[in-house]
Amino acid sequence: MTGQLRVLVVGAGYLAGHVGRRLTELGHTAILSSRRRPATPESRGLDWLPVDVGERRSVHALVRLARPDAFVVAHGPSDITWCEANPERAAAVHQGGATHLAEALEGRRALLVSTDNVFPGVKDSCAESEPTEPANAYGRAKLAAEETLLATGNALALRVSLVYGWDRAGLRPNFFTSCALRLRRAEPVAVPHDHWNSPVLVDDVAAWTAALLASGHHGVVHLGGPRRLSRVAWARHIAKGYGVDPGLVSPAPQRSTAYACRPRNACLHSERAAGIPELEDLAPMDVLKASTELIASGEDPT
């Protein structure tokens, strides 16, 4: 796909807003869509249309109105704990939404932003060739959405590890923002010592999404950061960045925290990215370096 595109971004949250902003910077037209008008800084100035992805008529009406050349599917719910407690509702939105979108694609390109939760977390890190075995209801819903869209023949699933960055207005600030908010006030935090991630900066996810959407690649691609680390190690690095005692970060077993339903190893690496020319200059940033730079930027996330 070449030239300027009209891209319908199904979603209007933190990640969708960053994707829309990246597409706009590259000269494309990005249209966000969600049930409620977005109020996040990332979505400011972007076009928006209402949709309920769980309703077939709503999705088809959206596509007729937006007249997109391509689609990015990045809608919620992404609260993994909520999905675990409400598996049928999660499936209705993710799998049901993918079914409705697949009907409306009519051969057009689609990229679904998916998750590391499609794996059980037994291995330290998973590449694209690893057999899927979802760890939770969110992973099952996302995997079903992947299969539905990939079956159209012109789609790609970009599985991403834990996404982070300053999330100033989010309903559920990501792990970096949550820790930064508390630690800069020298407040204690308790996080898992036995839960591992390969975090990826939101800007890198947006850059890969835009690049892959314009490529001819199909199937599944993984995007994980270059460093595998525990949440305790990450939080202590954030504490040092603010010049506060790393001892404010106390280790806790994963099973005793809000992360209990996540895979123990929520880490991804790619066997395929090196063969995709569009990704050649888009190496994801190291999480510790990026965290240091985010803290040094002085950006106020409140």
TrEMBL record:
InterPro entries: NAD(P)-bd_dom_sf, RmlD-like-bd. Residues 6-273 form the RmlD-like substrate binding domain. Signal peptide: none annotated. It comes from the Bacteria. SUPFAM superfamilies: NAD(P)-binding Rossmann-fold domains. This is SDR family oxidoreductase. It comes from Kitasatospora kazusensis.
